[in-house]
Amino acid sequence: MPADPVVLITGATGEFGPYVARAFAQAGARLAPTARKLDQAQTLLTDLELGDDRGLPAVVDVTQAGSVSAWVEAVLAKWGRVDVLVNVAGGYKPGALLHETDETALDFLFNLNARSAFLTCRAVVPHMLAQGSGKIVNIGAKQALQAPRKGAAYAISKAAVLRLTEALSAEVREQGINVNAIIPSTIDTPANRSAQPNADPSKWVAPEDLAAVVVFLASDAARAIHGAAIPIYGLSG
């Protein structure tokens, strides 16, 4: 991997994405972050002090194949390679009992969490195969391993991300591409603090710590790790 890798980050302007972007920027990467609005991605790059030579902001609908493909082609047109893909984009909605869950809720979470990872991985892998190297890091969730009541739709969507990670890793590990996932429990973000005012956030996962693991998995030091789903639970167990 080059010293200044090209890193594609979906969902880069959400609650966790900026920490991932900052960690890679500090490591000398060139960043292609996505956002729902262009000014959000531009502001992120400005905050990270990345000029046009090291930043390429984009608005991408990660649930639509055409939008994802156009993004990847724009990155290739600018830098000629794709070294790292981090799929931060995703979402959560409070659920209902399974027999009371409608298809709209299921489709929303599956598209945002699983379909997005499928489409972005599918778009970058041919280019990683052509260059003989690449790193992909997907974001799972603890509920993918142990689903709570009223959490079927979210758990299904995140479990699919883990199975996608395993399948893709088995397909490309011998071609110099590492595909792995992290499994965070509750991340210490303003939204989670607001949603759980009586919880103890000191037991949650600091976003900086989570981002550090992502950068590690994208580094040459993780070249022997394939198809892993690494739990990162902080003190919550």
Can you walk through the features of this model?
With 237 residues, the protein is of the alpha/beta class. It has one domain (6-232): Rossmann fold, CATH 3.40.50.720. Helices cover 43% and strands 15% of the residues. Helix 1 links the parallel strand 1 and strand 2. The longest helix is centred in the middle third of the chain and has 29 residues, at 103-131. The protein is globular, with a radius of gyration of 17 Å. The termini are far apart. The mean pLDDT is 95.
Spell out the blueprint of helices and strands:
Blueprint: E1 6-10, H1 17-26, E2 30-35, H2 38-47, E3 58-59, H3 65-79, E4 84-87, H4 103-131, E5 134-139, H5 152-172, E6 177-184, H6 190-195, H7 207-217, E7 229-232
Parallel strand pairs: 1-2, 1-4, 2-3, 4-5, 5-6, 6-7
Helix pairs in contact: 1-7, 3-4, 4-5
Q: Nutshell version of this structure?
A:
The chain has helices at residues 17-26, 38-47, 65-79, 103-131, 152-172, 190-195, 207-217; strands at residues 6-10, 30-35, 58-59, 84-87, 134-139, 177-184, 229-232.
CATH superfamily: NAD(P)-binding Rossmann-like Domain
Which secondary-structure class do the elements indicate?
A: alpha/beta
Number of discrete helical segments: 7
Write the H/E string, N to C.
EHEHEHEHEHEHHE
Strand segment tally: 7
| CATH architecture type | 3-Layer(aba) Sandwich
What keyword list fits this structure?
237 residues, alpha/beta, Rossmann fold, seven-stranded parallel β-sheet
